[in-house]
């Protein structure tokens, strides 16, 4: 079974000072690099969908496969469709959709979700303490339906899919780091760009605490993202 992870990173990031894909997460890694590493550890091929600031994102992440969402301004579904087309070209059997501003996901969670993929579910969606989360795990049939869906928003397009919600113990599936306030609450500093690849150092021990309070009510838990 070939699993392709699509990381949605095409949006404008109006509330952050920098493109979200390029913001430092931990150990000198950007949000996008952290997610690519996590999905890779789970056995997924990784594809990032870029739009706004695509040139800068590509320069920051050499070697990472990317696809341009030329119509990203039309809404999230346009970016999703660009990624789905590329995943189908890569002959994906299952596709995982995930926003770039939710980098605290665990590889073990992804492995568990992938083991649950069967012939009957079109969509598997994790939940944490009852809140719907990400990534969305889509069958090939679901991918075909989504790429032909009307509208500009993703959530309405998902409503017609046969879905299964799976409780997980990973708060990273619901925490959306999409505002400067949330970033500062978790990392103790204002959002900043990750260093260029050639200057990234080894992963620091102090970063292990950044997700410690993720399950608290003070941190946004969102089922949707504006990329």
Model description:
This protein has a single domain (3-209), classed as Spore Coat Polysaccharide Biosynthesis Protein SpsA, Chain A (Alpha-Beta Complex). 27% of the residues lie in helices and 19% in strands. The chain contains seven helices and ten strands. The strands form two sheets. Strands 1, 4, 5, 6, 7, 8, 9 and 10 form an eight-stranded mixed sheet that branches. The protein has a two-stranded antiparallel ribbon with strand order 2-3. The chain starts with a strand and ends in a 40-residue tail after the last helix.
Main sheet, how many strands, which sense, barrel?
8 strands, mixed
Order of helices and strands: EEEHEHEHEHEEEHHEH
The CATH class name reads Alpha Beta
CATH topology: Spore Coat Polysaccharide Biosynthesis Protein SpsA, Chain A
Taken from the alpha-carbon principal axes, the silhouette is globular
Helix content: 25-40%
Average pLDDT for all residues: 88
Give the CATH H-level superfamily: Spore Coat Polysaccharide Biosynthesis Protein SpsA, Chain A
The total count of strands amounts to 10
**How does the helix and strand content classify structurally?**
alpha/beta
Helical segment count: 7
In short:
It contains seven helices and ten strands. With 227 residues, the protein is of the alpha/beta class.
Helix and strand topology:
Elements: E1 3-9, E2 24-26, E3 29-30, H1 31-41, E4 45-50, H2 54-60, E5 66-68, H3 76-89, E6 94-99, H4 107-115, E7 123-128, E8 131-132, E9 136-139, H5 140-147, H6 154-158, E10 163-167, H7 180-187
Parallel strand pairs: 1-4, 1-6, 4-5, 7-10
Antiparallel strand pairs: 2-3, 6-9, 7-8, 7-9
Helix pairs in contact: 3-5
